[in-house]
Amino acid sequence: MAGAVINRAAGQNKRAGGLLSAAAWVIGVLFIIPILWMVLTAFHQENDAAKNPPAFFAPLSTSGFSDFWAAKPIPPMLNSLTASLVSTLFVLCLALPAAYALSIKPVRKWTDVMFFFLSTKFMPIVAGLLPLYLVAKNTGLLGNVWALVIIYTSMNLPIAVWMLRSFLAEMPIEILEASQVDGAGFFTQMYKIVIPLVMPGLASAALICFIFSWNELLLANTLGGNSAQTAPVFLTGFVTSQGLFLAKVCAAAVAISLPVLAAGFAAQDKLVQGLSLGAVK
Question: Which of 111-126 are b and which e, b meaning 16 or more Cβ less than 10 Å from the residue's Cβ?
Fold first, then answer.
């Protein structure tokens, strides 16, 4: 009798696992279909890309990519790369000590501090657009990529602090206590113990901050101007009120997405490990 109950429970768990796996595959396919459609459209002629219903088996062409490279996208992509990489580096340098103080050696009312960090994300970006524009104009940073670096750093810092704090909270404090007994100072602990142990979390936070900075459009369009034009702003230049532009936009979107995809694949192992860290207590 007990064996039959165990077998029945095992069968139910197996069916539930199969249903969850099938649901995960369905959700994954639904997410990947628009991306595949964008890539396929990028290799079509404009007339075929604009057809309704879509012409999936239309002849392939690289004219969209030729138009994209003819528009000289290197300067905007370098601006995006500079703003994203430098701001991400600043975020990690500021977020790691803050997360250390809020987890390893928590301050009084640390929950209020964490809520304050979270509350900075409550206000829509458009609500602070005019003050940011006036500050950038009065400080001479309007049309300068360093204005985007400063804004992206402040924009992504709360997210990084929240993420790294959860990672550091899982680190055994006995390791730090043992290193203190051996005479290790703060910087030695950070360099030789904390950073290696939370490297997956650092990779996850860095990749998320990089993606947010790379994809940001509103602030870059308002504060960057032509001299500090970023890749998303450059992408919108292919959308015109006259003529067909769908294939060119898709080709530009594919090319601009490649740096983010490359960063994601490079940090894939640490990203999965970092995002799953702390999921099981």
Answer: eebbeebeeeeeeeee
